[in-house]
Structure formats: C-alpha cells, structure tokens
Amino acid sequence: LSICFRTVEPLEYYRRFLKENCRPDGRELGEFRATTVNIGKSCCSITTADGSALVKLGNTTVICGVKAELAAPAVDSANKGYIVPNVELPSLCSTRFRSGPPGEEAQAASQFIADVIENSQIIAKEDLCIASGKLAWVLYCDIICLDYDGNILDASAFALLAALKNVQLPSVTVNEETGLSEVNLKQKNPLIIRKHPVATSFAIFDDTLLIVDPTAEEEDLATGTVTIVTDDEGRLCSVHKPGGSPLTGAKLQDCITRAITRHKEVKKLIDKVIKSIKPK
Amino acid sequence: PGDTSVLAGLYGPAEVKGSKELPDRATLEVLLRPKVGLPGVTERSREQLLRQTCEAVVLGVLHPRTAITLVLQVLSDAGSLLSCCLNAACMGLLDAGLPLSSLFCGVTCALDPNGTIVLDPTTRQEQEARAVFTFAIDSAEKKVLMATTKGSCSVEEMQQCLAAAQRAADTIFQFYRDSVRRRYSK
C-alpha cells in the first residue's frame, strides 16, 4: 500500500517522513550516504589514463579519468598549462537522459567543475608549464556518470580530486638544439595538489527544510538546491544556488557549517585510500 | 547598470511542443545570446541559473500546459553581466504582466584584494578581485533566490557581501518602481 501511495502522491509521502526528521531510506536529514572511492590503476578500471578514480555516493556512481597531453600554451599566458574538465551524463546512467549532444544538466555540471577548479586553485596552472611559451601540459579530465541517483555535483567534484591526486606526469625535457621535446616515461612525478575542494549539496523542501545529499527522487521533489564548495582552511570556493526557493542568510550559514564538517570527513577518507595504495 | 546592457524579450504564455508540455504548470525557457559568437557552455549554465530563478517566482500553476520563453541578448558587457541579465529578466516579466510571487533583482559584489566590498564592479574590478559574488535577492523578504561565486573567500566575508547586496537591492527595487511608474503614467 505504501508503494502505491509513494507513486501517486510522492510529495505527501515524503512530507510524512520529513515531519519525523528522517527520510524513506532511513537516513537523517543531515546524513550522507555511504561514500566509497577507488583510486588508481590497480583497483580502478582505466588503465590507459594517467590518473583515475571511481566514486560511489550510495547508488550514484561517477568515474573520472585524467589524460595528460602536450600543447603550446596560449599567447597571453605563456607560463600556464590547461585543465579541461568535461562532465558527461550518458543515457546509460538514467532514463531521464537521451543520447546525443550534451544536455543542459551536463553542460551546467561541466561549467560548475570548471568553476571549482578555477576558484579553488586546486592546481596552479604554472605548475603545468614545461617550457615557458613553448610547451605545457593539458589535463583532460573526463568525468562520466555511470549511475545517476542524485547529487551528481558532489560525486563529480570528489572523483576529480581523487583522480588528480593519482595522476603521475612523466618528466619532459625540451632539447635546446632541436627544439623537440623528449618524454621520459620511466621517471614520473605526481601532480602538486594545492587545495582540496569538497562539494556538499543540499535540497530545499517547501522553502524551509534542508536535506543533505539528495537522491534522484528527492531532487525531483525538491523546490531548490544549494551546493557549497569548501577547501582546507574553511574558506568558501563556491556557493552555487541555481534559483529555487529563497533562503535566508542564516539558513545559508547552516549549510556552510555542515559543508565544513563534511569536508573534514571526505579529506580523511581520501587520505586513507591514498595511503593504502602508496606501497607500489 | 553602467555600460553593460542586455535586451530582454518575453513571449508567452504560448503553445508548447508536446514533449516539453508539463500538465500542471507553465514550462519556462531561457535563451541567452552572447554579443559575439555562438552560445557555449557558459551561456548554458547561466541560462539554467536564470531559468530556475524565474521558475521560483513565476506562478506557473496559473498557466498549465503553456510555454513562457525569455530571450536575452547581450548588447554590451562592461562587468556585472549576470546581474544585468537578472534585472532585465525581472523587468521583462513585469512588463509582460505575468503573475509573479515576488520581484527579484541581481546584485554583483566584488571583494578586492584589500578586503573592501565593491558593489556592481566593472570588468577590470572583477578581474582584479579576490572573489566575485552574484546574488538574486527577492523583494518580499530579501531572501537569497540565487547565488553564484567566483574565487574563494572566508565565510564572514561572504556574509558581509550578502548583507551589502541585500541593502543594495532596495535601491534597485526603487528603480523598478520608478521605471514602471514612468511607463504607465504617460
């Protein structure tokens, strides 16, 4: 009977749970789903990529592969490399997406990740430069969703961070005489990650309630969403609230506090996973 | 404001294509055209921000199974483009006479390297700033409808910028009232 009710009146079904301060899947309003992360070639799938990570937030599964290529830097920023993120939401991850050119959600997510990279200075683009004006690294970060169950922004940001921590760049020297580059695949250096931004998403219900880490069903019923990206020192890298119900400054402050707590949890998780793959 | 100008055209409520039809409310569509070039990923993400902001204020349930289309053309960009688009969108909605639950206005706030808050920055001020915030504030209770940030800052600084933006919103709403009065008093 409850399944019928859920299909016919999903909002009322949810309201009953929210009144008791919990959600249908048993979580509390401020509780995240179980997060797991797999980094690297041994336990993750992509062997052709320079860095890869697979993140699962409950059922939402996102994989990120980073490929490094060489290119000439732009004329106006000769000592900077590039980081190019691309988020894809293929039709296999959910029935709501059709195959074909990227839809609005995928493009908005790509823009969000690009903003996070830019705002948080996760990698200094100067570090990617090999020879000023002549050669620099381009990091193509492909983030692909394998299973869409809500909260795609958090999972993508997490996957990106984990994959970048895993990237090993071969050392490249530019031969002065010939002007050609010589790539030494034997000698690899990890990327210097300066900051660790972590995204936390909330869904707003009925203008008042805030729930953390929404599933796809909760996202559909929500009247708005907020995503907050914090970095190591508790500084805000991004507040992304694309419309939806209005929030007071105080509510926003609550979200930020929760986001800072979440940052610490995620950072501990990433460090633990990286330590476990270190002996190689 | 200043040299940034955006032209907003609003069409609706009108017929909607079968696949996009929503049975209980109006479908809102936003198209943002940059001054030069084809619309790209930045425009798409801005369109999504604008669309969801407008969806929050427009009483779509009064016009089910219709489409409301908002077309914004950037005429010139001298900084604070997103809040200019927000203001143009709101005035367009007002002028079209669509039922709204409240008005909204866009305010851009830049935090320069010294820590001073600059409202409505020019392009150069935006580039030099440590962080730039764009808020959409609603007229009913001065709550935050939409927020995006560029650059990083501390939490207190963001709260200060938000407070400054809420104060500035009053000036913009007064401007709305004056323009509408001028238009309809002729």
UniProtKB/TrEMBL annotation, chain A:
The keyword Cytoplasm applies. GO terms for cellular component: cytoplasmic exosome (RNase complex); nuclear exosome (RNase complex); nucleolus. It comes from the Eukaryota. Signal peptide: none annotated. The keyword Thylakoid does not apply. GO terms for molecular function: mRNA 3'-UTR AU-rich region binding. Transmembrane segments: none annotated. This is Exosome complex component RRP43. It comes from Fregata magnificens (Magnificent frigatebird). The gene is Exosc8.
TrEMBL record, chain B:
One of its GO terms (cellular component) is nuclear exosome (RNase complex). The keyword Nucleus applies. The keyword rRNA processing applies. GO terms for molecular function: DNA binding; RNA binding. It comes from the Eukaryota. Transmembrane segments: none annotated. One of its GO terms (biological process) is nuclear mRNA surveillance. Residues 2-99, 103-167 form the Exoribonuclease phosphorolytic domain. Keywords: Cytoplasm, DNA-binding, Exosome, Nucleus, Phosphoprotein, rRNA processing. Signal peptide: none annotated. It is found in: Cytoplasm; Nucleus, Nucleolus. Belongs to the RNase PH family. Homodimer. Component of the RNA exosome core complex (Exo-9), composed of EXOSC1, EXOSC2, EXOSC3, EXOSC4, EXOSC5, EXOSC6, EXOSC7, EXOSC8 and EXOSC9; within the complex interacts with EXOSC3, EXOSC8, and EXOSC9. The catalytically inactive RNA exosome core complex (Exo-9) associates with the catalytic subunit EXOSC10/RRP6. Exo-9 may associate with DIS3 to form the nucleolar exosome complex, or DIS3L to form the cytoplasmic exosome complex. This is Exosome complex component RRP46. The gene is Exosc5.
